[in-house]
Design brief:
A two-stranded antiparallel ribbon has the order 1-2. The chain has helices at residues 6-20, 47-65, 69-72, 93-101; strands at residues 24-30, 35-40. The chain starts with 5 loop residues before the first helix and ends in a 5-residue tail after the last helix. By secondary structure, it is α+β, with helices and mostly antiparallel strands. A hairpin with a 4-residue loop joins strand 1 (24-30) and strand 2 (35-40).
């Protein structure tokens, strides 16, 4: 569902929203049915609110720009209600960034 041009537009929207949230985007890749995002956030950010905002705003914008997505979505929803967040603390950021950026190739 997130094939080009939808996936490309999704990446633009998410990049814009992450910057607006005062976070720093490190890596982003949209696959067919999910997205990998690596970003830096301040300790004061409420990650659950940030993720829900990213999902809500991106789906609203994509449905406006690509109305046919509604017919291919899960009961009118672009995203499932779940998400996975993990901190990468001491892991080498370059390795994580490369992993995310190569996901579409796999």
């Amino acid at each position: 569902m997130l094939a080009r041009p939808v996936g490309d537009r999704l990446k633009e929207i998410l990049t814009e929203l992450i910057v607006e949230a005062s976070c720093t985007l490190v890596a982003l890749e949209a696959e067919f049915d999910h997205v990998h995002i690596v970003f830096r956030a301040k300790p004061t950010h409420q990650l659950s609110k940030l993720v829900n905002s990213l999902k809500g705003v991106s789906s609203r914008r994509l449905f406006q720009e690509f109305p046919w997505l509604k017919n291919r979505s899960w009961k009118g929803h672009l995203w499932s209600p779940s998400y996975f967040i993990v901190t990468v603390g001491g892991a080498p950021l370059d390795v994580i960034k490369k992993y995310v950026e190569t996901q579409r190739e796999r």
